[in-house]
Amino acid sequence: MHRAWRLIPSAAVLLAAACGTGTTGTTTTTTQATAARQGGTIALFLPESKTTRYEAFDRPLFEAKVKALCPGCKVIYGNAEQDAAKQQQQVEAALTQDADVLVLDAVDANAVAPLVNQARQKKVPVVAYDRLISGIDYAYYVSFNNVRVGEMQGQALLDALNTKGTTDKGQIVMIHGSPTDPSSADYKKGAKSVLDGKVKVGREFDTPDWSPDKAQQQMEQAITAIGRDNIVGVLSANDGMAGGAIAAMKRAGYKELPPITGQDAELAAVQRILTGEQYMTIYLDIRREAEKAAELAVALTKGEQPAATSKVNNGTADIPAFLLDPIAVTADKIKDTIVKDGFYQADQICTAEVKAACTKAGIE
């Protein structure tokens, strides 16, 4: 652990001096320090499991990368299940277990500054993962360009409406993410920068917990308020909520679903895109994100400070950041992005119900 190994060299030097070992003492010191650096305790905290990416990708990819880079490192893991109090308990428990680094995807990124401060007092560096933590300085931020995600979603929806000739024939519904997630505000900002003044927004919702069930309820409310035939498109901030909105529209008797956006490239969403139920998703290379966070965590256990590629202001400080590029994916792009990268194998996507659509898209 980094706080422990920093004490080893001075102790070893004193021992060497007392024993008169000279060069041998220096060699022993180096060996001891190197051995100590081979281990460490890294804590990873994820916010929820309703979004399938966290347990299916983020956690296993992060843990595998840590193991590859640091076989002696231990990973403490906690999923808060969208409960901020539970996440606080998980973080505090990790600090009592002498975690060397915290990688934190906060349930409420606007309210965890006190937790980060607890870590700072113990000299434990914090990496904000996926969601920007506000109100305090910390080591790094690893995520995607979230405003760009919203821009891509907005542009994709606008392109689909223009192609169908329905841009000015009705209204759209906007289903945003959780109000406690700063990324949601960025997605919204990006989408609105593209859509404002070009489409009419009939109903707009913030969705607590990114819940697909709540998104379904919101879509049902929108259909009742606007009228089924007056909704020409849906801007959904992620795939799980898109699934909820689609369930509401099917229940309302839509013969043809309007274009709907998403994000995360969830397997069910990829299949919906191929069969025409969902128009697009934002493919985030979660492998790169999880592995970059793991690389930083391991480096920090060694006392290293890798140079960041950019900085993001969180309202209090300029946080060293690594921001990855999102990719907009429609049916014609699945083969050359999601499948090509091995995010899913063709046989995972092309179940019996989707086989014909896969063949049409050239996915075998």
UniProtKB/TrEMBL annotation:
Annotated ranges, domain Periplasmic binding protein: 42-305
Keyword Signal tagged: yes
Chief place of localization: other
InterPro entries in UniProt: Bact_Solute-Bind_Prot2, Peripla_BP_I, SBP_2_dom
UniProt superkingdom: Bacteria
Signal peptide (residue range): 1-24
Pfam families registered for this protein in UniProt: Peripla_BP_4
Subcellular location(s) per record: Cell envelope
Record CDD domains: PBP1_ABC_xylose_binding-like
Alphabetically ordered keywords of this record: Signal
Entry-linked PANTHER family: D-XYLOSE-BINDING PERIPLASMIC PROTEIN
Protein name according to UniProt: Sugar ABC transporter substrate-binding protein
